[in-house]
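Lecture 7 notes: from sequence to structure.
We start with the chain below.
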Amino acid sequence: GNDLSGQASPPAGSRFIDIAAGNFMACGIHSDDGRIECWGAPTFDTDALPEGVAFTQLSMNQYDACGLVDDGSIQCWAGNTLKIPEDWAGTAFSSLSLGSSHLCAIREADGRVQCVGLELDDWGQTIPDVEFDSLASGLGFTCGIETETKRLRCWGSILL
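Predicted structure tokens for the same chain:
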């Protein structure tokens, strides 16, 4: 691919535990302290990156970035098109995934998924009530691997 914006040129010498990419930029979580560093052509103000917080996982889309904090909470910044619901406060999550304009996360306590965002109410599909190991989200949909059966389950847009 091309590297016109520097998105394919990570900082030299840096070590990361997780990375994510958005439009024309990428970000990584430093392995030594959990802080986030971004490179490329920022699609959001990099001065808005959370400071003094240790992250364990990162997910991005074209507008937003969200991270899983080491205490299991979720913080989002950047485009601010996603707002974490107040009732998520105090809930610890083990994994998260950003779609085009939605966020899904796996609750640490029971492996169930919670989602928030624009597409969720539009498609008339519900989140399966089973435990999940991991998630991946796209344009109006999310897929997860079930903990017990290792089957892949998807929900969201049926118009793709």
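Points to note: The chain has a mean pLDDT of 85. The chain has no helices and twelve strands.
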